[in-house]
Every structure is written in C-alpha cells, then in structure tokens.
Amino acid sequence: EVGERPRFTEFSDDGRTVVLKLVNTSAENFNVRTVLEGGFPIADVSIKLVAPDSLSARNTMEKPDAVRAVDAKVETTGNTLRFSLPRWSVGVVSVTRTPPALPAAGVGARN
Questions:
Q1: Cα–Cα distance, 99 to 91 (Å, whole number)
Q2: CA 79/CA 40 separation, integer angstroms
Q3: Please, which residues bridge with residue 75 across strands?
Q4: Which tops the pLDDT comparison, 105 or 16?
Q5: DSSP letter (8 states) at residue 54
Q6: 5: closest CA among 77, 73, 65, 90?
Q7: How far apart are CA 54 and CA 6, in angstroms?
Q8: Confidence of residue 41 (pLDDT cuts 50, 70, 90)
Q9: How far is the CA of 57 from the CAs of 6, 40, 52, 79, 101, in angstroms?
Q10: Average pLDDT, stretch 12-16?
Q11: Please, which residues have CB within 8 angstroms of residue 93's CB and are 6 or more apart in sequence?
Q12: How far is CA 88 from CA 29, 37, 67, in A?
C-alpha cells in the first residue's frame, strides 16, 4: 500500500485510462501494491520513473541524460499492481482498461 506517500490519480477523458502519480521522497526504496477496484479490467500498464539516485543529480552539457524518465517493470495479478519506487524518485503509472465487449447481434435489440 502507498500509505502516507504523496500520490495523485486522474482519469483520461474517455475513462479508459487511469494515471497514478507517485513520489518517493525518502532515502529508502518503496514497494508499492495497489488494487484497482470497481470493475477496471486491465488491458495495458506501464510506468515511467525519474530516479537519479542522488539528490544532487542534474543534467549538464557533459551529461545531458543524467536525470531522465525511463521505463520500469509493473507486475499485475488480476487488478493488483506491484512495482518499486527507488529512493528519491517520481513515478507515473498508466493503466488502460479492457474496452467493454460489444453486445452480440440481436442481444438487447428491439424488433
């Protein structure tokens, strides 16, 4: 569980994607487990992390990519997500739901 860590959640306009924004301000790695409730079947999930591993890290002309977003791993089991936030990091998780099934021809139709 995220506990008292800062976190922000928003949905896309079409309601198919939820975006979780998390910050780990501590000097310790943080393992996250979160459950998406309310019938949100997961089709795709990704995470982008900015985790320079130093509070003094910065981009310079010599090292222009010292601080940058990278892809990381998210494990899914049903509607449960598990991933790690390294120390002093920011993560953005995007979860896209499976589109609802279209009704079969003739189901629910009136003649």
A1: 25
A2: 7
A3: 82
A4: 16
A5: S
A6: 90
A7: 19
A8: confident
A9: 22, 38, 6, 35, 47
A10: 80
A11: 19, 20, 21, 22, 45, 46, 47, 74, 81, 83
A12: 8, 28, 12
| Gap between the Cα atoms of 83 and 63, Å rounded | 28
User: What residue type is 18 in one-letter code?
Assistant: V
User: How far apart (Å, rounded) are the C-alpha atoms in residues 74 and 58?
Assistant: 26
The tokens for 57 are 């890290």
Q: Residue by residue, what is the 3-state secondary structure of the chain? A: CCCCCCEEEEECCCCCEEEEEEEECCCCCEEEEEECCCCCCEEEEEEEEECCCCCCCCCCCCCCCCCCEEEECCEEECCEEEEEECCCEEEEEEEEECCCCCCCCCCCCCC
Give pLDDT tens digits for 47-83.
999 999 899 999 999 999 999 999 999 999 998 999 9
* Helix, coil or strand: residue 73: coil
Look at residue 86 in the predicted model and tell me its pLDDT: 95
